[in-house]
Amino acid sequence: MTEFLILMKSELMATALIFILLFIKMGGGMKNGLLLQVIQVLLLVNFITGFFFNKEGNLFGNMFHTSALIAFQKNILNLGVYLIALLNADWLKKTDHLPEFFILMLSALLGMFFMVSSGNLLIFYLSLELSSIPVAAMANFDLHKKNAAEGAMKMILSSAFSSGILLFGISLLYGAMGTISFAEIPQHLDSSPLQVTAFIFIFSAFAFKLSIVPFHLWAADVYEGSPVATASFLSVVSKGAAAFIFITILYKVFQPMQELWYNLLVTVSVLTMLLGNLFALRQQNIKRFLAFSSIAQVAFIVLGISSNDHIGITSVVYFVLVYVFSNLSAFGVASVIAEHSGKENIDDYKGLSKTNPFLGWSLTLALFSLAGIPPTAGFFGKLFLLTAAAAKASYWLIIVAALNMVISLYYYLRVVRAIFIDNNEMPIKKIQADRSAELGLVICSVGILLTGIVSWIYDFIQSLH
Amino acid sequence: MNLLLLILTPLLTAIAVLLPRNKQHVKWVSFFGSIVQSALAFVLFFAFRRARTEDPSSPMLFEQKHKLFEALNINLHLGVDGISVAMILLTSFVVTAGVLVSWNVEKMTKEFHFLLMLLALGAYGLFISLDLFVLFFFLEISVIPKYLLIGIWGSGKKEYAANKLALMLMSGSALILVGILGLYFSNNRDFDLLSLSRASIPGSVQDIIFPLVFTGFGVFTALFPFHTWVPDGHSSAPTAGSMFLAGISMKLGGYGCLRIAIFLLPQAAKHYADIIIILSAIGVLYGAFVTMMQRDLKYINAYSSVSHVGFSLLALGMLTQTAMVGAVMQMVSHGLMTALFFAVIGMIYDRTHTRMVNEMGGLMKAMPFITTAFFIVGLCSLGLPGLSGFVAEMTILVGSWENSGLVHRAATVAAVLSIVVTAVYILRAIAHTAMGPVKHERHLQLKDAAWNEKLAAVILIAGILSIGLAPGWLSDLLKPATEVIMNKLK
Questions:
Q1: In chain A, fewer beta carbons within 10 Å around the N or the C end?
Q2: Cβ neighbours of B237 in A, within 8 Å
Q3: How confident is the prediction for chain A on average, in pLDDT?
Q4: What's the whole-number average pLDDT of chain B?
């Protein structure tokens, strides 16, 4: 029993939080501002407890597997949710259904926990569903906005489509070898056409979840329509979780097919990088811009995964951690500005450094980190992914990836230029953001500056597995 | 001496600059920081000379190694040889002078000095790091501050120039990154410069990596045809920005070409030597002739920088020891000279509000100090004996002549020809601005240099003279260091 409690600690915590929120909702008497503070504290506690009592073990007949590394991965997701609760305080305070929003988000988080821990394709499928359906509801949280409904519709259709494909792949696999357990599948893999087809279907489901080419187009519309809190959850937490389980599935389950998936990953990654970058070049809306930029970022994760070794795992986990700080910070600034001034276009950001230096510098730091400029952590994250990939990849591949970083620098600098260099007669007025949003930005900026330079973080992740 | 100090001082200065509320205090903090950096550079210089006499054999001195990313075998490995010490001295001179000439920057003063110190940090760090990853880190640190310096405080078509500079330099560093990763995996996951220099990297691998690394660093140091960011970047940057760009940043590239490309990949260096020589000879001549057509003082110095830096790349391509010593001398000399040149142009522009040669005249009457400095730097640029330019170019030409190949001879002759062209454009620029009749009456009322500008000029002139009159100290520094590299080339 105690083992059960300890191994499922993260999941139980998330469930407990959901229940607490339900009770608060039923009790009904709490004001939004206070409630938000309570939620923030609860999430912080949740994050801190995530560091303790982490053991390796299996439950439910190997359906559920956890280890120190997996616990750390879950805690990165916890951190992401906590930061989202801080950074979007301005919007959250005003929303009519605050507890519901977090109930939905925590349900999705619970799904991700199970997904990261899954040891069986069945529980993987169930948890994937749990992690995507609540997000569709979150996407439509601004009920009065038309494109929110459109985005949510696109989200639910595409995720239904992708789970259909996933189920088809799983059933083909089951038909081919009679098992869906992660431990047993590798023994039966022989790269027969049926298995390859099954693998490609499962791969497509991941492509949807990670929004990589050719299944990337839903991302921009959904991000644009949904509230920033949902968009940042989708682009950071959800993608992080998908990347983690992607590694397990590729490295553990489909290891015998590694030549096939190596080529697939590399091709998809290069295409995603190029398309994501080229689309991002011309975006005006900051949310669409960040959508395409995060598509390009994920391409680097995929490239790192292709390395198929320990360095690859460490680099991906490290990069996701860095990405949590940098992308959430960028979304956070977008959220504060959108909430106070209603402006979402990059051109509106002109002259931001004069009226709101704190927001301007925070966004700049985040964008530099996304672009991979030292001394921010993004530099180390990207470089380690490239280093991991370079162990196997050819020179041209690394050159293409490195030059893609230059293309991405161009559009990140576009925003920096708007903030610092361009003149504007009607800049965004001085904004007094919520205290917790400011705290969130400070945490993100410190994270961006320190995660890279404090080098033991990387070595710590390496020591977890 | 503990080399970490050289990283910590600019870092602490950069942080300290952000603290005071008063703009005046910001400047003094920044100035104080740069003085400490110069003092450290001098201490390092004398300590190095002493240590070198005690220990003439080991390639690097004052080494220290700290584990950084153990899983990837990345270490903070620091150490210096004569070349690094010379570059560090140059950096400290230019940084101090740069802070001094920026005394009148009123717009976002804090951020300005913060970025200057970040640039200095990048330069110091690069010159002392012996781990390729750390070196690359410092190289990239110095790119974005330049973008912001040009973009925020620049003039003219600054957005275009800043973007062009950032993207070209980042493309260069992308190539370097690929080359560094190639080196890393060629020696069983090792970023360490010294152990890589002892490893035997197969020739076929060298032939792939060398062009990547050399071109990458070549972009930084304006290797023809990758020089196009130079004129736009230099002319749009604020004065201190141009000084840093031409004085330090371009030298980062030259240093990298020598330290990484030639030192670690000697076999490939021999294969590609002819291409380097041809490209840099084109750069030398092209830069000189284009300068003849310029009317804007900043463009004159920018294009003449392409020509002068071409000299040091040419010398690197020659692969003889004398030429190599000359190459580094030229880097140091050009760094000081071009920094002074930009400083003087900045001073003139602040007063006359024009940089066009034909709109000035007789400035000597109103501003004797500034124009005298202008004279000195011009004469140094055209290679007058007694000034640093002569020493460096003479060494390069002597070293180049040692190599009797046809390409080498032709390139050397071309380089000599460029000196004549240099004399033409420099003398013409000086004659039109400093001497002759006064073009505008209001120019007579202009004030001469203030104390900070005088101090900046004096510091740089002292550097130029110390190399020009007594080049021994510099060549003593460089000879043992270049010998190590030459041994690899044999």
A1: N
A2: none
A3: 89
A4: 88
Q: Which domain holds residue B297?
A: 4-489
- Closest among A165, A271, A124 to A212, alpha carbons compared: A271
Judged against a pLDDT cut of 80, whether residue A196 lies above it is answered with yes
By C-alpha distance, which of B297, B150, B335, B298 is closest to B237?
Answer: B150
Number of domains chain B contains? 1
Residue numbers of A between 252 and 311 with CB closer than 8 Å to B:
310-311
C-beta of residue A209 within 8 angstroms of C-beta of residue A249? no
Neighboring chain B residues of A382 at a CB cutoff of 8 Å: none
Give the mutation candidate from B177, B189, B210 for the A interface (greatest A CB count, under 10 A): B177
Q: Look at residue B90 in the predicted model and tell me its pLDDT.
A: 92
Q: Give the pLDDT band (50/70/90) at residue A395.
A: confident
* pLDDT computed for residue A352 by the predictor: 86
> Residue A26: its pLDDT value, please?
85
- Which residues of B fall within a CB distance of 8 Å from A402? 174-175, 177-178
pLDDT score at A423: 81
Using CB atoms within 10 Å of the CB of residue A122, give its burial: 0 to 12 exposed, 13 to 18 middle, 19+ buried: middle
The CA–CA distances, whole Å, from B428 to A224, B361, B379, B380, B425 equal 60, 12, 12, 15, 5
Kind of pairing between the strands at A57-59 and A64-66: antiparallel
Check pLDDT > 90 for residue A3: no
Instruction: Find the length of chain B.
Output: 490
Residue A342 confidence class, pLDDT cut points 50, 70, 90: confident
DSSP state letters, A408-464: HHHHHHHHHHHHHTS--SSPPPP----HHHHHHHHHHHHHHHHHHHSTHHHHHHHHT
Q: What is the pLDDT of residue B275?
A: 92
Nearest-Cα residue of chain B relative to residue A408: B167
| Cβ-based neighbours of B149, under 8 Å, separated by 6 or more | B112, B115, B116, B119, B237, B238, B240, B241, B244
Q: CA B209, B211, B214, B218 torsion: positive or negative?
A: negative
